[in-house]
Amino acid sequence: MQRYRLRLEYDGCGFCGWQRQAEGASVQGTLEAALASFTPEAPSVTGAGRTDAGVHASGQVAHLDLERFWLPERLLAALNAHLRPRRVAVRDVGLAPTGFHARFSALRRSYVFRIMNRRAPPALERGLVWHVPAPLDAERMHVAAQALIGRHDFTSFRSSECQALSAVKTLDLLHVRRRGELIEVRATARSFLHHQVRNIVGTLKLVGEMKMAIDFPLAAMAARDRAAAGPTAPPHGLVLERVDYPDGWPRL
Amino acid sequence: MQRYRLRLEYDGCGFCGWQRQAEGASVQGTLEAALASFTPEAPSVTGAGRTDAGVHASGQVAHLDLERFWLPERLLAALNAHLRPRRVAVRDVGLAPTGFHARFSALRRSYVFRIMNRRAPPALERGLVWHVPAPLDAERMHVAAQALIGRHDFTSFRSSECQALSAVKTLDLLHVRRRGELIEVRATARSFLHHQVRNIVGTLKLVGEMKMAIDFPLAAMAARDRAAAGPTAPPHGLVLERVDYPDGWPRL
Question: What pTM did the predictor assign?
Fold first, then answer.
C-alpha cells in the first residue's frame, strides 16, 4: 500500500465544503468520484482542513492510499482529467513519507482573507473577495490584530458548532495589508477553531471602519464570549493557501 | 447637456463583447439597459475600445450624455445598483471635459494578457487566464517581444475582420514577466488592430515553448502575412486594464 499526498486548488462556490455530506457536492466527494472513475480501488481522501461551504483553497493538502503503484505525475494527470469540468484542480502529487497524515502531521495552516474595499462591486473577482464599500483603515486593523498573536483562549472567535475540545490556540501570524483596493488578512497557526479566521476578520472590519476602538479585538477575546466579538465574515473571501509539514513539503 | 465619463470593470465571459449586437448580451447594451431603468433619457454609451467576446476589462472607459444633471457619485451608485447581478461594475464616474470622446480622445490603451503556466488547470482563476501546461520561458518571450516595439506594419498580427484603414501602428510597450505560475504580457499603444494583442501572445508562446527561434516574431512581422505569425490566443486571458487621456484622467 502506498500513500500519496496531493496539493489542491478549488473554488468553494458551488461546494457544500470539503467534507462529504448526504446532500450537495463536496470537494472530498468530488475527488473520490474522480478516483473511482479510473481505479477500482475507490480510496477515501483525507484533507488537512475541513473548509466550509464557499471557502476556497489554493493549497489544501490531502492524502489517499492505493495498492497499485502510480507514478505521481500519472496520478496527477488522471485526477485532473477526471475532475473536469469541476472547479477542483490537483496542483501536486507526491509519495507521502511513512506515517504521513494530511491532517495530523500538519505543522501550520495559512489562510488569506481578501476584502475588496471600494464602492464598485467586484465584477472580475466576484465570489473571490468580500465586498466592503465603506473605506477601511488597513493599518489600524493591522495594529489591532497584533493583540491576538500568541497562545490564547479564542472562545469569542469560535463558532457555536465548533467541535474542538479546547478553545486555546496559538496564532503565529495575523497580518493586514492594503494593496490598492484590496485588503489581505493573512493568518497562520498550527490549527484553527471553526470560523476563527472569519470571526477575526469580521471583528477587525469594525476597527477598520472606526466603529470600534483599536483595543476592541483584545477586549472581545478577553470576554470569552462569542457575542463580544464582531460578526462572521462571509466564506467566499477566505482561501486556504498553504499547509506545511515537518519534512518541508510542499516546497514552493 | 452634460457628458459623463465612466471607468468600467467587467467579466467578458457571457458577453458577446463590448458592442451592441442583434443577439446576445453586450456590455454596451447592458449599460444602456441599466441607464434606461432609472432615467427616461436612455442615452447611448460610447466605449474607448470594442473588446471582443470573452475579453475582460478592469479599466475600460466610456462616455454618455444626459440633459438632467447628476452628481457623479449618484450616477455611479444608480448604475451599479441597476447593473446587479450582471458582471459589470462602474468603478468611477466623472464629468467629462469639453470635447471629450471616450474613443477619439484616448492617448493610450493598456492590456494585460495572463497565462497560467502549470500542469494543473486553473480552478480559482478559471475564465481569467489562458492555461498553458507546458513550461514557457518568459524571459525568452520578453526578449523576442522587444523586436515589435515601435512603429511597424502589423499586418501579420491583424485579424482578417479588422476594419482599420492602415495596419501601421506604434507599439509603446510589450513586457513579458513571470510571477510564479503566472506569466503576464503587458501591451500599451495609442490603439491596436483587431486581435493584435492575442495574435502577438499566440506568437510569443511559440517562442516560449522553444518551438520557434527568438527572432520569429520579427520575421513574422516582416512577412506582412497573417499566416506567418502564431495562432490567436483565447480571449479569456485578455484584460483591458487602462485607457489614458490628455488631462491625466484617470488618476489611479
Answer: 0.93
